[in-house]
Design goal:
Layout (H helix, E strand, L loop, with lengths): L2 E5 L2 E4 L4 E8 L8 E6 L6 E6 L5 E3 L7 E6 L4 E6 L8 E7 L2 E2 L3 E6 L1
Parallel strand pairs: 2-11
Antiparallel strand pairs: 1-3, 3-8, 4-5, 4-9, 5-6, 7-8, 9-10, 9-11
Amino acid sequence: QVQLLESGGGSVQAGGSLKLSCVGSGYQFSGCGMAWRRQAPGKEREQIAGISITGVPTYSDSVKGRFTVSRDNSKNTLYLQMNSLKIEDTAVYSCAACTWAGQGIQVTVSS
């Protein structure tokens, strides 16, 4: 059974940092490209960061320069380091691998 479990979310003040983790199980972790997505209230879900099986990252314009995606295949874990957080970063963040996705975790940024 495939599982993607996010952790590290929570509340932070604007300008602060958080690091999200996503542990994958039940599939070949290293064989899948992975991504972080987010969905804010009343908005469509957007992919904000991706990382290929060879570790090449991509970012949406909304987070480029502030967020860093990485993966540790030895730990079956995907990471998202989020710095200089803005109020508009408030959303439910979820990870995705191949055709699967996690349930998501709340990130709230306040002034």
